[in-house]
Amino acid sequence: MADQKIFAGPRIRRMRMERGLTQTAMAEGLGISPSYLNLIERNQRPITVQLILKLASVYAIDPQELQGETRGSVAALKEVFSDPLLAGELPGDQELIDLAETAPNAAAAMQKLFRAYREQAERLSDLNALLAGQGRGTTLSAARLPVDEVSDVFERRPWHFAALEEAAESFHGELAPGDDLFAALKAWLRKEHGISVRPLPAATMPNWRRRYDRHSQRLFLSERLSRADQLREVAMEACLIRMGEVLASEVAALKLSSDEARRLARFELARYAGLALMMPYAAVHQAAGRARHDVAVLAARFGVSFEQAATRLVSLQRTSSAGVPFFLMEIDGAGNRLRRVGANGFPHAAFGGGCPKLPVHEAFADPGRVLAEAVEMPDGASLLLVARTIDGPQAGFDERPRRTAILLGCDLSFRDQTVYGAALAATPPTPIGPACRLCERAGCLARAEPPVTRPLGLDEMVTGLSAFDFQ
């Protein structure tokens, strides 16, 4: 304590006011001048060890109280002010510290109010989804971050961009890569634009997958990435250069509301274009039919990852040669939904993707294994779902690897066109719901939340199997 300056003005002021003392009275009790106490309370002077001991002796104050930890409260306040409604009012760190220290009760009340607001916003969103599924859409909306706006646009439209497909096919024909697209792209970048591609060790690029240095005309790739991911990064960079006008046109067609949203959309569309370049439409459509949409077989055939092959299957919706209308969702171990796309838009109303019984959650218990399952929705619709974990960049010895899981789904009527359908013949469909808040299945052992459409059952004489009983 002697080696560290302690500024605890707001806490001392609060202690003084709780005891009903004036600055003059407290200064007299501590044996210091009122002007010095005033400077301490305004954090213009640190408190000394002698003063801390005096405070403990005269006012029975625990010295630890003067070193109260405010980081947790400040972090919670940062979350409050990061909401889109308050993003323009975000104070600096010092202002948040002052609020947390000077008015801790008010800060706690603000956090409670924010949690209640978030809860109500989630309930309104659930009700809006329920009404939309019944054909009674509302105008309920909430302020959204640019990333939320972009995700919503991509989730609600087909995951197929005809102009990008045509540009990718033209580019692939120009490259004539044979069996080595990676080498062809590197040669094209160097010959046409003077850009060299160079992998770098993780220690040199600790935070990046890819970095393009415009000054030295070098594209750096992290060695953490698998060969398939390195190929996608190079293909994405090449598409950003070669297909700039087409990308700009597709972004404009999305009618996004901000420059930040348009930048994020351009990035996602460049990833789409890179994947289309790696797996040309005609070739992958033909191979998918022959392999009966076996994702692992397609990944091996085109030298891509399981996730890349699954995502490409969703995009095979060209009018003249459409594939199975798949949809795809990616989640992490905490259940956060990171990505949702669909051949006809992600099926929010009919499927939702928020049921705890989905095989995508079970996949984490058996990493790398492909799980296939038939499920049945409350309205009787049946779906074929395929789930598997996917690993992120290579982690170091002292790092926790990134692992997520993807779920690939389609209507069960397409089961005979897939290699997964035969495995489901003798297995009855698993009953699921769109999300616990919208599901009225009684006695569900996996229920995580009560439905918003039914009142809770509070019968003291009866306890149901679900964690939340309802009438």
From TrEMBL:
**Span of domain HTH cro/C1-type:** 12-66
Q: Which PROSITE patterns match?
A: HTH_CROC1
SMART domains given for it?
HTH_XRE (SM00530)
User: What keywords would UniProt list here?
Assistant: DNA-binding, Transcription, Transcription regulation
Give the family, as the similarity comment puts it.
Belongs to the short-chain fatty acyl-CoA assimilation regulator (ScfR) family.
Q: What is this protein called?
A: Short-chain fatty acyl-CoA regulator family protein
Which taxonomic lineage is given here?
A: Bacteria, Pseudomonadati, Pseudomonadota, Alphaproteobacteria, Hyphomicrobiales
